[in-house]
Amino acid sequence: MVPPLEFSAQAFHPGLPKGQAGASCGLASDHLRCFVCEQCITLPLLGLQLKLGGASDRLLFFSHPDVPDWQFYTSDLRVLHAPALIAHPAACAVREANRRHTLTFLGALAAILAAFIFGALLIYWSLDGLSGVVARRLPASWEQKLGESVIAQYRLEHEFLAGSTAQPLLQPLTQPLLAALGETRYPMKFHLVDDPALNAFALPGGTIVINTGLVLSAQRADELQGVIAHEISHVTQQHGLRTVMRSAGVFVVVQALAGDASGLLAVLANAGPVLANQAYSRDFEREADDLGYTLLRKARIDPRGMADFFRLVLAEEKKQIEKIEDERSRELFKKTKGFLSTHPETEARITDIETRLKADAGSHWRNDQAAFLALKQAVQAFVSQQEGNTKQ
Known about the structure:
This protein has helices spanning about 90-125, 125-135, 140-155, 165-180, 210-215, 220-235, 240-250, 250-255, 260-270, 270-275, 280-300, 305-325, 325-335, 345-360, 370-390, and strands at about 5-10, 20-25, 30-35, 40-45, 50-55, 60-65, 70-75, 190-195, 200-205, 205-210. The chain has about 400 residues and is of the alpha+beta class. It folds into 2 domains: about 5-100, Roll (PH-domain like), CATH 2.30.29; about 130-390, no CATH class.
């Protein structure tokens, strides 16, 4: 014989003190017996009425027509699964209702969780756009100070061509671009650094650093100007700041968007070492290509130089790779190469530029070759001097 299932309940009856009292119940194979205030109330299972109620249907109410005015409830829902009630019609109906309620609750919970995850992913996917909004809210002066701090650290380990020499040489090549660019958040500042890598990089606040290796490898003025236009676009679109924001995470960006920029400022304050060597996202690179092309065209500088310089870099890297016999060293070189490490999908980007050039066929472009050759001559002298200093 299966022993009765015992559980606690609450009883309601007009004759009870305040109309209710605690009860101790035992469920047998054919009846439910409850002890209330020294009374024993027996409810036959045949005809027993069951229903869910209370907050979120967490209570089981039971009564019987043969015992009028008495009603009981318990929070112990295991009663529904007792052997005596497995086949009971009312218990089966309540279990089904409870199952549907559970499924509805779990479905709602899953929907809320899915909405939260989707919202988080949506914010993450929109980080580029959100970072742009937040970046525009930062004071331009603060952004300039960040760029100046980075370039000051960079100077400690690199030799720069004196500004009094570099600026007059760069001005004829950069001024057409700046004139076409128009008003900006901050003035653009150009520097020449002794570095053989075919590279240039932009810093927050309008600072652009051009390697001597880039100047000496370029064959025409429009090739160098194409790279400069690209870097100017990184500055105007604040790609450096926005890349650091992406690495800071969704919470920091959303927090700054809501008005609390303390966390973001703390991240940016420590981002100096990476700003000079960071890699931009493909979307940022494409945007810099697109805006750089538009800027070149507006300045009447042949945009073909941008594509030709990409080809020059690809050819140079191919030569260097072919010289490396060890496969592991070759792969390491590919991962650590200079200019293209921050300019992925170069061949596809060359194709995109050539596609746009078809619409500009027959256009008349300015010629800054004389200024470029003067710059190249001065850079060559500067590099030779540095090499001589190193040998001494």
